[in-house]
């Protein structure tokens, strides 16, 4: 059970919320969820910071409780453990995201992380008609610098400078 008392033992799918059906117009930071970079609707406070009450209020308005987002993590706020971000970035219009998994900030459970990404890709491919039922995740095949071109169906392996080292269309 999670802190709210909801049973999570039923399967991994219960951890994820489908935002397609009733996605709020603005996200947690008041940015547009439509990908059109509409300016924030959260009013600026005099010192540029929102109070905890204001953050909680906006979170409730935006429906974060549906995602199981806690209002507090139950940990003391220690500045030396904070992660710095110079500004918010609306990712709604971003079509490709890479993860810097070099273990400099946090330790990842790579097999679980990549396995979940594989599960979602397989699920989406099945939904559009690809025969993926017999496919199994193989953590040995996970490789750094792979880009999936969803529009054309290409897999592209690039080096650290962005030069294409290998490209595949499907399994060719």
From TrEMBL:
The record's keywords, sorted A to Z, are: Hydrolase, Magnesium, Metal-binding
Q: Which organism is it from?
A: Hemiselmis andersenii (Cryptophyte alga)
**InterPro entries found in the cross-reference section:** HAD-like_sf, HAD-SF_hydro_IG_5-nucl
Q: Which GO terms describe its molecular function?
A: 5'-nucleotidase activity; metal ion binding
Q: Name one Pfam family in it.
A: 5_nucleotid
Write down what this protein is called: 5'-nucleotidase
């Amino acid at each position: 059970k999670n802190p709210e008392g909801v049973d999570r033992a039923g399967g991994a799918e219960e951890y994820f919320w489908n935002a397609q059906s009733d996605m709020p117009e603005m996200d947690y930071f008041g940015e547009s969820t439509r990908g059109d970079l509409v300016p924030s609707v959260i009013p600026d406070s005099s010192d540029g910071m929102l109070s905890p009450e204001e953050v909680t209020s906006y979170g409730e308005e935006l429906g974060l409780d549906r995602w199981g987002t806690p209002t507090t993590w139950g940990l003391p706020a220690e500045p030396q453990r904070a992660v710095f971000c110079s500004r918010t970035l609306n990712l709604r219009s971003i079509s490709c995201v890479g993860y810097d998994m070099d273990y400099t900030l946090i330790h990842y459970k790579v097999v679980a992380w990549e396995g979940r990404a594989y599960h979602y890709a397989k699920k989406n491919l099945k939904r559009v008609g690809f025969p993926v039922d017999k496919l199994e995740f193989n953590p040995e095949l996970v490789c750094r610098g792979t880009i999936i071109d969803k529009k054309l169906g290409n897999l592209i392996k690039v080096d650290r400078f962005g030069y294409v080292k290998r490209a595949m269309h499907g399994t060719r």
